[in-house]
């Protein structure tokens, strides 16, 4: 049955049996003091503040029996999947692969790379480890979505203008309809989040739609 979620730039028509939630990179290194995000000089409290809304969204999808996918930006311990251009960019005090307060930064299996405990995956939820900004690059995400019959994606996570928007653009090019949960995504720079949201829904949802968490939950809770 087709239903509509109140959204911008216009209502998002959805079939909940083809809908999945993707939570992008809600990792300790990006949200906690002492992590990689903080080493770049960012205010990680901006990321931490969206945790309650991401948690509500997660619970809503779980209660509705809809698929949930988590992504983690991370690299192999030998750094064979980390291009020098990515490692060297930005000249932070700590770089990917270096020893940090929570283990080697953005390396698979390290404490800082883990998803925040409040948002941790539960049994049956898929975790995609991605070496790039977009979640489709060098991952199994496309195959996972195809196997589950998913055609529409709701997005949460960080950062809005980088990994979230990049993945939405990748998904859009692959034919998925994309909806961003506004309160469940964040940037270290408020003006970047605002600009990303405007770009996503410009020109008649050229990349996708945006909606409030409550409006998403209301529809999936009655689907």
Helix content: 25-40%
Low-confidence stretches: none
- From the coordinates shown, what is the CATH architecture? 3-Layer(aba) Sandwich
Give the class-level CATH name.
Alpha Beta
Arithmetic mean pLDDT: 96
Spell out the CATH superfamily: Isochorismatase-like
Query: What is the N-to-C succession of helices and strands?
Result: EEEHHHHEHEEEHEHEHEH
Whole-Å distance between the termini? Answer: 8 Å
Main sheet: strands, sense, barrel: 6 strands, parallel
Q: What percent strand?
A: 15-25%
- List the total number of helices: 9
Structural class label:
alpha/beta
Spatial strand arrangement across the major sheet: 7-4-3-8-9-10
Structurally, the number of domains stands at 1
DSSP, total strands:
10
| General shape | globular
Instruction: Using the coordinates shown, work out and report the CATH topology.
Output: Rossmann fold
Give the radius of gyration.
17 Å
Keywords: Hydrolase
Pfam family, one: Isochorismatase
InterPro entries: Isochorismatase-like_dom, Isochorismatase-like_hydrls, Isochorismatase-like_sf
EC number: 3.5.1.110
What this model shows, in words?
- It is a single chain.
- The protein is of the alpha/beta class and 223 residues long.
- It has one domain (13-221): Rossmann fold.
- It has nine helices and ten strands.
- It has helices spanning 28-31, 36-39, 45-48, 51-64, 84-88, 141-148, 160-173, 190-205, 213-220, and strands spanning 3-5, 12-14, 19-24, 68-73, 99-100, 103-104, 126-130, 152-158, 177-186, 209-211.
- The strands form three sheets. A six-stranded parallel sheet has the order 7-4-3-8-9-10, sandwiched between helices. Strands 1-2 form a two-stranded antiparallel sheet.
- Strand 9, helix 8 (190-205) and strand 10 (209-211) form a beta-alpha-beta unit.
- Helix 4 runs parallel beside helix 9 (213-220) and helix 7 (160-173) runs parallel beside helix 8.
- The mean pLDDT is 96.
